[in-house]
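WARN no homologs supplied; continuing
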Amino acid sequence: MSNIAKGVPFWRKEQFTPFILLSPAILTLMFVVLLPLLFSLYTSFTGYRLIRPESLYDWVGFRNYERIFSNKNFWIAFGRTILFLTIALNVEFILGLGIALLINRITWGQRTLRTFMMFPMMFSPILVGYQFKFIFNDNIGILNNALQALGLSDGAIPWLVDKYLAMFSILFAEIWMSTSVFAILLLAGLFAMPRDPLEAAKVDGCNAWQVFRHITLPFIMPFAFIAMTIRSLDVARAYDIVDVMTGGGPAGRTELLWTLIARVGYDNSRMGQANAMAYVSILLSILFTYYFFTKLLAARKYMGGAE
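OK structure emitted
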């Protein structure tokens, strides 16, 4: 039997079966994810320009990183991205929590409402960007026409041209599209909540706010931190909506990290410097993910879960 086993090819041996079955997925990840990541990391240390293919071999070390750390426009976009991320996550959490609490109290038509609640997240960011670009258009936009028809505005409001209103418009579109992520996860937390602590609190004379503050909210916070982790990765990479609605304008006032990276890499053809910016932005995403993950563990520990 041992001689027969020795003559069997290794790919037919039982211990290699899991690796053979996983090999298509592993090879796909290598070619689609790992190799582009390694290539972009290499180019971040070169003076690679799209219009000069030979510059791919122009090794410059940390010069690209030194330039972006001394670049005022990069740090402005970096700070604006953090502000955008903070506002979007907090507003989405508050609105999602409110929607989840309302739907949880409804006894008739709840499934239908849950289905409608998922519609915004089904649209692609590009489609949402074009949709709200039309809504906020200065001349033919639905919003301006409605405000003027109701007598609430005397003229067209430059939603996508004014430096403050443009950022508000982008935030509004982002929040409209993604609030349902928070609502769905928080609603799942409400469904999973045991009823015994709620009934015991009511017996002890706690009012609705005390029950929510000390029982409901701590229980659903792990679900909230999961949603924040997912959304922090999405918002930190926000590009589609910003590019479609404002293109980073007016005068760069709505430019975030990824629109700046795209402009440097494709419009200015400085791909090496753009990849260096991309790796710095990846660190930002990792920091936010780590922060929310630690908050998730703390919330689970507070509720008596596994550490």
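The chain has a mean pLDDT of 84.
OK
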